[in-house]
Design a protein that fits this description.
Elements (H helix, E strand, L loop, with lengths): L1 E7 L2 E6 L10 E10 L2 H9 L18 E2 L3 E9 L12 E3 L3 E2 L5 H4 L10 E2 L11 E5 L4 E2 L6 H4 L2 H13 L7 E5 L3 H12 L4 E5 L3 H9 L4 E3 L9 H4 L5 E6 L6 H8 E9 L11 H6 L3 E4 L6 H11 L8 E6 L3 H6 L9 E5 L3
Helix pairs in contact: 4-5, 4-10
């Protein structure tokens, strides 16, 4: 089969590779319909290996070139031993790409996203930029017939947002501040609105992304200004929010989240910063704010599918284009070919 394979920094190729073997215990074989491209894929291309293992992964046993892609929707083609009874061949599913050992303390607590030796399809195991994918049966979410593949492919990034919003313990009257309107920031804003936030304010330096936020129905969209001279509209939000989300990991965003929140507020960080982030500790301590990390998801892919299926979250406006598999190397070299939206999807048959 053909697959988009990472060989090293600046080296992604469409190769002919062996199809996966039959699924093992607790696994399924998925015929991939769509696979979304993620910022983490670009990071591996630009300066990897970042999360791709340097040596054989302790859980997946994978090392070396890897098929990228972890935002997957497709149909179950085969079931391995001990697969859950609710699964059957032919079901359309959104894939939870995380792999966990089931034995460590975190797994025994039910926090498989914190597994001591966690892996991820598309990073430490072959991923979904191919016709077929071996996936863990744990966390698969059945996709209703009325949800198109393009929308279902956004269940994985939306699950990141669902988990982050749950970590914030939002109340219906809460006001929410979102720092950064990339794919995760947009998903967090949409999820917060869906669960009943009283107001959502978004701060984003890109005019194009601010316009996209407005097109998605957000009316409180702020230009941050500069580090030396924050905008007047950003300064006006001081102490405004009950909860804030750093969805960018860029310098100054976490500090902006702290300034924007009231005393006793929660600041959730689903973004992964490439470097060290200065933290104004006095605002954290004297305001008794809570700083909360949020990693991936834990059963949230099914919740994300439910939000999409019910219409509570409309992800169509996030999709920029669907590329054929053959165009993946060109997209890595020039992401502009993917259009101006937030999420590029890949059709592995093309």
């Amino acid at each position: 089969m053909r697959a988009a394979v990472w060989h090293g920094p600046k080296d992604v190729r469409v190769d002919d590779v062996e199809a996966p073997g039959p699924p093992g215990a607790g696994q399924v074989l998925v015929e991939v319909a769509r696979c979304g491209m993620c910022g983490s894929d670009r990071r591996e291309y630009d300066r990897g290996p970042y999360l791709i293992p340097h040596r054989r992964h302790p859980l997946t046993r994978h090392v070396g070139p890897v098929i990228l892609g972890h935002e997957v929707v497709g149909r179950i083609a085969a079931l391995g031993p001990d697969a859950p009874r609710a699964l059957e061949v032919g079901l359309r599913v959104a894939v939870d790409p995380t792999w966990s050992c089931g034995r460590c303390a975190a797994c025994r607590r039910g926090q498989r996203q914190l597994c001591d030796i966690a892996g991820c399809s598309g990073v430490s195991a072959n991923g979904g930029l191919a016709a077929q994918l071996l996936a863990s049966a744990a966390g698969l979410a059945v996709v209703p017939d009325h949800v198109p593949d393009d929308e279902a492919a956004l269940a994985e990034p939306l699950a990141v947002a669902v988990h982050a919003v749950s970590r914030a313990a939002l109340q219906p009257a809460d006001r929410v501040f979102v720092g950064g309107f990339g794919p995760i920031g947009a998903a967090v804003a949409l999820t917060a609105r869906a669960v009943g936030a009283a107001a959502v304010a978004i701060v984003e330096p890109s005019p194009e992304r601010r316009q996209l936020a407005a097109d998605l129905g957000f009316t409180d969209v702020l230009d941050p200004g500069t580090a030396d001279e924050p905008s007047e509209e950003l300064r006006a939000r001081r102490g405004w929010a009950d909860a804030a989300f750093d969805c960018a990991g860029a310098p100054g965003v976490l500090a902006a989240c702290l300034r924007a929140t009231r005393s006793g507020a929660r600041i959730v960080v689903p973004a992964v910063s490439a470097g060290q982030t200065p933290l104004p500790m006095s605002q954290l301590v004297f305001g008794e704010r809570s700083l909360i990390g949020s990693l991936g998801y834990n059963g949230d892919v099914a919740r994300a599918v439910g939000l999409i299926a019910s219409g509570a979250v409309d992800v169509r406006g996030l999709i920029s284009t669907v590329l054929p598999l053959s165009a993946v190397p060109a997209w890595f070299a020039d992401p502009g070919i993917g259009g101006s939206g937030l999420k590029v999807l890949v059709d592995p048959t093309g």
